């Protein structure tokens, strides 16, 4: 059953939720990627075969799942794009260089399949690869190893002739020409695909897999951040990392929870790149499928909604049970995912047991979610002053059971193992503006995340990086003046290039020495010096927090330096 939770909370205003936050505004959709018309202004929704069937796919299975989307009501709720993944073609092109449909698997061909889906008010998606071979070694669109003509324009024209609406473009087996880096080669390839789509005469959404081929751990490396920064110029959504764990028919009950948590882990820090027409994609929804409990299914759906992630199922739709359908078809959670502001939620507090996420919504509402990572039920209490909400009354709606409460103090309840609570908060008139409050996450050890921590001050205001705990010494507020405040003090430049906590300027004007401007790549630039906030080399649980090498510092701003990338509260 969904968690039954009570809520009491001070509220937030309807105005300026986005503009008052220090973090940069989300990307806006522009007619410069694959079409002269902005596409995917909300996260795409639908179904893909890969995480359940892999290459064991054929026309009958695609049609059966499309029909199940309609009969379950999921299609009417937005799950309307049906995508055929790898292995749909033969192993070679025809004499004209066109892709050849495997008619043993798809006897009516792809044009027929598109007509079938469109007749049921569904959209048609298809898979290809920017390399010369797909991941399963079928013909790709890219140049052969050693160089030669590519097939980007030819394949896109073929897709347009089949009336395809959505292209998943993978990134296996890409040839890197001499004199080009891997990152440059991927950018060239996806730019070519985007250009071909734009010239095709048909609007087709592009799902780009480029970032996934650069992922290194949860926080990632420099090239990973570079690719995520440019990939939105080519497509509307992108895979950043590892695939969700696939269903294994020989071991159907094998847990897939760790895979859900892993993909959530790398996606949760990347909200600065998301917005209408540009979406971070942590991979498929497997809620309701074998390998997840009912609570875990709710968690995946709720967390993906908080992150404004695409809702693309990959399961046997007809076999999804009642709990899974209830989570996937929850209209309040779908509305959260599809919120037109398009702002990805942020983790504002985390430790080994709980993550707390906040997401600003269009019209002044605010969503709050609490994830219970532990293997047992836990009582939860989230004082609302700890997530930046002023003293007033708001209506809190539990999105899992629809219960409404007038609230003024804290969100409370009991949460099952691996479950996630989600509320939508609507403030009363006259409430004070929400103040972005919570942790500032940056690079930790082993390419993981850590949090800026002001606990070990010893009279000098030292700020270090440590394991995220959700404690008060990691609870920063973002001021309208660009300041970053902790316990009544402001992050400021100190001696020897270090930063420290110091008394805040007495007036309300922007003080250059205590004001910080965020960049799209995650850098925080101090206005006075033009230097960037930089994490120490050894960023996890410093043994001596007063040692300069372990404290946060200012340094020349680099090109997508991972030690200068920060995730801020919203």
Question: Secondary-structure map with pairings?
Answer:
Elements: E1 5-7, E2 45-48, H1 50-53, H2 59-71, E3 81-84, H3 109-119, E4 123-129, H4 152-161, E5 166-170, H5 182-198, E6 205-208, H6 222-231, E7 237-239, H7 257-267, E8 279-281, H8 294-306, E9 311-313, H9 322-328, H10 331-337, E10 346-350, E11 354-360, E12 366-372, E13 378-383, E14 394-398, E15 404-407, E16 410-415, E17 420-427, E18 437-438, E19 441-443, E20 449-453, E21 464-466, E22 476-478, E23 484-486, E24 489-493, E25 499-503, E26 516-518, E27 524-526, E28 532-534, E29 553-555
Parallel strand pairs: 2-3, 2-9, 3-4, 4-5, 5-6, 6-7, 7-8
Antiparallel strand pairs: 1-16, 10-11, 11-12, 12-17, 13-16, 14-15, 14-17, 18-22, 19-20, 20-21, 22-23, 23-24, 24-25, 26-27, 28-29
Helix pairs in contact: 4-5, 5-6, 7-8, 8-9, 8-10
Question: What is this entry, summarized?
Answer:
This protein is of the alpha+beta class and 570 residues long.
What this model shows, in words?
This protein is α+β, with helices and mostly antiparallel strands and 570 residues long. The protein folds into three domains: 89 residues, Golgi alpha-mannosidase II (Immunoglobulin-like, Sandwich), CATH 2.60.40.1180; 293 residues, TIM Barrel; 126 residues, Trefoil (Acidic Fibroblast Growth Factor, subunit A) (Trefoil), CATH 2.80.10. Helix content is 18%, strand content 22%. It is built from ten helices and 29 strands. The strands form seven sheets. Strands 8-7-6-5-4-3-2-9 form an eight-stranded parallel β-sheet. A hairpin with a 5-residue loop joins β24 and β25. α5 runs parallel beside α6. The chain is globular, with a radius of gyration of 24 Å. The two termini are 30 Å apart.
């Amino acid at each position: 059953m969904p968690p039954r939770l009570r809520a009491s909370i001070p509220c937030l205003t309807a105005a300026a939720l986005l503009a008052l936050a220090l973090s940069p505004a989300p990307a806006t959709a522009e007619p410069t990627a694959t079409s002269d018309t902005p596409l995917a202004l909300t996260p795409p929704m639908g179904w893909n075969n890969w995480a359940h069937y892999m290459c064991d796919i054929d026309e009958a299975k695609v049609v059966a799942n499309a029909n199940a989307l309609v009969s379950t009501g999921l299609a009417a709720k937005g799950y309307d794009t049906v995508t055929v993944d790898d292995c749909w073609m033969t192993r070679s092109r025809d004499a004209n260089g066109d892709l050849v449909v495997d008619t043993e698997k798809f006897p009516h061909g792809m044009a027929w399949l598109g007509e079938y889906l469109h007749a049921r008010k569904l959209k048609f998606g298809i898979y290809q690869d920017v390399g010369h071979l797909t991941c399963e070694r079928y013909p790709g669109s890219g140049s052969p190893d050693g160089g030669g003509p590519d097939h980007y324009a030819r394949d896109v024209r073929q897709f347009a002739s089949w009336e395809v609406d959505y292209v998943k473009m993978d990134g296996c087996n890409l040839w890197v020409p001499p004199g080009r880096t891997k990152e440059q080669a991927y950018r060239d390839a996806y730019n070519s695909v985007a250009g071909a789509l734009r010239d095709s005469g048909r609007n087709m959404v592009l799902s780009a897999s480029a970032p996934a081929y650069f992922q290194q751990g949860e926080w990632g490396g420099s090239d990973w951040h570079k690719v995520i920064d440019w990939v939105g110029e080519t497509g509307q959504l992108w895979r950043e990392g590892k695939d969700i764990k696939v269903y294994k028919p020989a071991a159907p009950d094998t847990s897939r929870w760790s895979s859900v948590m892993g993909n959530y882990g790398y996606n949760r820090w990347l909200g600065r790149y998301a917005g209408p027409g540009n979406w971070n994609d942590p991979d498929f929804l497997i809620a309701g499928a074998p390998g997840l409990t009912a609570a875990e299914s709710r968690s995946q759906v709720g967390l993906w909604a908080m992150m404004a992630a695409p809702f693309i199922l990959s399961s046997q739709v007809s076999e999804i049970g009642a709990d899974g359908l209830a989570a996937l078809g929850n209209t309040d959670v779908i509305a959260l995912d599809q919120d037109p502001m398009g702002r990805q939620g942020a983790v504002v507090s985390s430790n080994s047991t709980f993550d707390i996420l906040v997401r600003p919504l269009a019209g002044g509402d605010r969503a709050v979610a609490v994830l219970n990572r532990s293997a047992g039920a836990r009582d939860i209490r989230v004082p609302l002053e700890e997530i930046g909400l002023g003293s007033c009354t708001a209506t809190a709606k539990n999105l899992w059971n629809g219960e409404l409460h007038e609230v003024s103090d804290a969100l409370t309840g009991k949460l099952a193992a691996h479950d996630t609570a989600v509320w939508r908060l609507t403030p009363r008139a006259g409430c004070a503006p929400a103040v972005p409050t919570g942790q500032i996450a940056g690079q930790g050890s082993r390419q993981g995340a850590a949090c800026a921590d002001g606990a070990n001050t010893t009279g000098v205001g030292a700020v270090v990086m440590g394991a995220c705990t959700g404690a008060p010494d990691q609870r920063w507020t973002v001021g309208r003046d660009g300041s970053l405040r902790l316990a009544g003090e402001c992050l400021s430049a100190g001696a020897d290039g270090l930063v420290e906590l110091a008394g805040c300027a007495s007036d309300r004007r922007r003080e250059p020495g205590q004001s910080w401007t965020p960049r799209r790549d995650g850098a925080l630039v101090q206005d006075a010096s033009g230097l960037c906030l930089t994490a120490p080399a050894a960023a996890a649980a410093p043994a001596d927090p007063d040692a300069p090498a372990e404290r946060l510092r200012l340094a020349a701003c680099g090109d997508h330096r991972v030690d200068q990338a920060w995730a801020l509260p919203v």
